[in-house]
Structure formats: C-alpha cells, structure tokens
Amino acid sequence: MAGLGLIVVFLLTAILAPLVAPHNPIALGLGQQLRPPSLTYPLGTDELGRDMLSRLLWGARYTLLITLGAVGLAVVAGTGLGIYSGFRGGLSDTLIMRCMDVLLAMPGFLLAIAIIAALGVGMVNVIIAVGIHAIPAFARLVRGATLSVKQLEYVLAARALGAAEGGIMWRHVLPNVTPPLLVQTSLQLATAILTASGLSFLGLGPQPPTPEWGAMLSTGRTYITSNPQLATVPGVAILLVALGFNLLGDGLRDALDPRLRR
10 Å Cβ neighbour count for 203? Predict the structure, then answer.
C-alpha cells in the first residue's frame, strides 16, 4: 500500500502539473539565476532562472510517460512472443528464445545506448530502446508460465473440441499467466525509470528545454556544492518512484502467490 500510495502521488502530480505548477517550466528568468529556495521559488531556480518546482512537476509527466511507454511496449511484445513460443514449441520456440538469449547476453544499458545511437536521440527513441531492453524478461517469464498452463485439462479440452490455437492462447492461456506478469511489470517499471533517467543524464533522452528528471540531474550536478537542490531534488524524485514500483511489485507478489498466503 505504501508503494501504491507513492505511485498515485506521482501520477497525480504528472496529470495535474499544468494546474499546480506555479510558473512556466521553460520560461527564462532574467536576473533570477541560481536563486535559493524562497516563497516565490520554493525549490529555488536553475542556472537559467527557471523555477525548479515547476520543472519538477512537469518533469514527472515526461519521466513517467517514458517509463510507462517503454514497459508497455515490452509487455505487449514480450507477452506475445512468450505465449507463442511456449504454446507452439518446436523450431519457433527455439528461434525466439535464442533471440532473447542474445539480447540478455548484452549489457542492458549499453544495448539501449546502441539502439539510440542507431535511431537518434529523443523521447520516442528512448521509449523504444528501454522497451527492447525489457522484452526478454517478459518473454522468458510468460513462456515458462505457458509451458505449465498448456498441459492443464481445460486447455487440452479446448484443443479436443477443435478450438483455434489463437483463441486458446487468448482466452485460456493469457488470463492464467497474468498474475506473474503483473508482478514482473511493476518491478520492471522500477528498472525502466532508472534506465531512462540514466540515458537522459547522458543527454540521449528528451532534449532541452524539456524538464526531464534525468536531464535535470545531469545539469544540477555542476552546481552540487553551491546549489545542491538542483541535483538532489530530481534525484530523490527518481528514487521515490523506483522505490514505489518495487514496493508495489513485492506487494503484488505476496497477494497473487497462493504459496505465500497464510
């Protein structure tokens, strides 16, 4: 519940950013550069005089959009590949799993950098890079669950009645592999926000003046001694969101795994 509460707070922040942000997040403030926290600027201003609180609130929208988009891409692609691979077996299973093994053999962060180097920098390309990096985890998880489910009586009965394979996978297999998929999705969201923020920290994500947390952290490290809030505030925000998703994943695992119930 604590993890869910953190996630809800940040989601509401992202949705309501246009209404609650006190200033324009990209408006330059002449003569207001590197101001300390005050009533006008609760978190101070950055090197260009922009309000840090407004940029933090708007940054939640871009950071969570990248994270949710990347994991959504990985869930759809990984689930489809995993169910098809586990249900069909044979050559299809071998080819798909060997491709997943190749992706897993590559360091995830370097793989994302290589994809962005091929596609170019930008928010959409970060979503694609982080999503591709996460696909193997979902594919292998769903394949393992599918191998167990396809041997159960109701699947064998559907096959005996002449149901199409696509219908069996959609109506009978997918609902029964969803619980572990939900847990993996929540945990993968925590990994995705760290990866996406790391790419933005290196300048490969949304470009200035977009207020993205990783990019804000990269800029703020230059002023870590004189204006520490420029780096610590977006850093703490990333930490809390990752913590929220991890706590939520642990809670879902405890709730959905009957072996852990008392």
Answer: 13
The band of 257, judged by pLDDT with boundaries at 50, 70 and 90, is low
Residue showing tokens 């509460």:
5
Q: Strand, helix or coil at 140?
A: helix
76-123 per-position pLDDT tens digit: 999 999 999 998 888 989 999 999 999 988 888 888 999 998 988 889
Distance CA 42, CA 139 (A): 45
Residues contacting residue 216 through CB under 8 Å, at least 6 positions apart:
46, 55, 56, 59, 230, 233, 234
Q: What is the three-state SS of 224-237?
A: CCCCCHHHHHHHHH
Task: Provide the CB-side half-sphere exposure for 34 (13 A, CA).
Answer: 11
On whether the pTM is more than 0.85, the answer is: yes
Q: Scanning the structure block, which residue is given the tokens 């642990």?
A: 250
**Amino acid residing at 132:** I
| For residue 260, pLDDT beyond 80 | no
CB 150 within 8 A of CB 173: yes
Return the CATH fold of 2-27+39-256: MetI-like fold (1.10.3720)
Contact present, 143 and 110 (Cβ < 8 Å)? no
Nearest in space to 44 (alpha carbons), one of 241, 240, 228: 228
Rounded distance between C-alpha atoms, residue 125 and residue 163, angstroms? 40
| H or E segment to which residue 43 belongs | none
In 3D, which of 25, 10, 1 has the Cα closest to residue 61?
10
Nearest to 152 by CA among 173, 166, 181: 173
